[in-house]
What does this fold into?
Amino acid sequence: MKKIIWIFGQSATGKKTLINKLLKHDESTLVDLGLSGSNIWACEATINDDKKTTPKINDAFLYNDVNLEKDNAYFSQRKAINRRSCIMTDTVRFINDKDADVLLIKGQDNDIWPNRGDIVKNFLWNFGLQDIEIEVFILSVLDDEVWKKRIVSKKWFQDFKEKDFIMKKMLMERKNKSHEKRVIQAFDAANIPIKIIDSSSKHYEIVDELNRTKRGI
It folds into this structure.
């Protein structure tokens, strides 16, 4: 059965790194996550996270964007709408390709918010009757010191003037597991299997599972 995997995780947990390993058929990673022998696709727009990657087929889905947030420093309507269309149409292409086994979607917080495209809800609503599986991976770097080293190496972090304030804010979010809670809430009602994965090292370890009873979306 075809499988779609949404990959979430706080900044610097290695979402893009994991996707690239799976696309390059890194055998150790495939074994860690039970995906050996799979023909793996990825939604390119979610990896690049830009407006340059556009849908490869027409987006015929209907959306209610009456409450879509206005453009600001943290949100672009055009970018969100393009991202949503790419996710939806890549899913259609994936379902219709007889040789494709797994589709990877790199998730972000904006995908969950109703006023930022309501992407996850639209995804679940439109593909709810398809004979495919969906899983969610939430990557987590369990060691705070390892995670902090990753964060400070990021260019976007170096660009902040108030680095100490930003770090304290992000550490508080880690302590409260705010990101994880938002992701779980978005998928939990649909009883979607969710795996918490430790991505601290080169090997990936599933440390917790929610909604183990699989269901199609």
